[in-house]
Amino acid sequence: MTNPWNALIVRVGRQKWFATAFKGVAPHVDRFLGRVTGGRVSMLTGTGIKTLLLTTTGRKSGQQRTVPLLYSRHEGALLVVGSNWGQEQVPAWSLNLLANPEATVAVGGASGPVRARVVEGEERELVWNTILLKNWPGFKDYAERAGRHITIFALEPVKKTTAG
């Protein structure tokens, strides 16, 4: 059974006014909720829409930067989309990953290191059309509004090695 809030959130989330109004508020609230609950709670908890906290290293500052993002799973990786709510500017976290693909994610109370790779070509078309747009149809609206190529990243777990 689908959550009744899901359809409403998806419909409202596709609207330009929503992106404009909430892009400055929602990330701060989600970042706070994620930090105090270890990534177990976000503004979308209970809706079926998945979010994670991504921590990158600032390409200019060298400081750790944490941002809440929608995500989907694909072949052991977490997919995130550099849509920036449909803005013309590429999101800073995306530029940070391009400069340094090593990052950390927190999902559902667990966190760990990941390595980002840009999803391109046939794989990009596949995940865009069959996974990402299914989980968040608003990405299509964001891409149209942004008027730029939207980067998709696969965040792949970094396997721990043991010295021996």
How many strands appear in the DSSP assignment? 7
Instruction: Tell me the number of structural domains.
Output: 1
N-end to C-end Cα span:
49 Å
Which structural class fits the helix and strand makeup?
alpha+beta
Second CATH tier, the architecture = Roll
The level 1 CATH classification is Mainly Beta
Q: Which regions contain 5 or more consecutive residues with pLDDT less than 50? A: none
Main beta sheet strand tally, sense and closure: 7 strands, antiparallel
Q: What is the subunit organization of this protein?
A: single chain
Helix-strand string: HHHEEEEHEEHHE
Spatial extent as radius of gyration: 15 Å
What is the beta-strand fraction? 25-35%
- Given the C-alpha coordinates, what overall shape results? globular
Reported by name, the CATH topology is Pnp Oxidase, Chain A
Helix content: 25-40%
Overview features:
164 residues; alpha+beta; Pnp Oxidase, Chain A; seven-stranded antiparallel beta sheet; 7 strands; 37% helix; globular
Structure description:
It catalyses: oxidized coenzyme F420-(gamma-L-Glu)(n) + a quinol + H(+) = reduced coenzyme F420-(gamma-L-Glu)(n) + a quinone. Pfam families: F420H2_quin_red. One of its GO terms (molecular function) is coenzyme F420 binding. By secondary structure, this protein is of the alpha+beta class. It has one domain: Pnp Oxidase, Chain A (Roll). It is 37% helix and 26% strand. It is built from six helices and seven strands. The protein has helices at 4-13, 16-22, 26-37, 92-99, 121-135, 138-146, and strands spanning 51-57, 64-70, 72-74, 77-81, 102-107, 110-118, 152-157. It has a seven-stranded antiparallel sheet, with helices on both faces. The protein is globular and about 50 Å long. The mean pLDDT is 83.
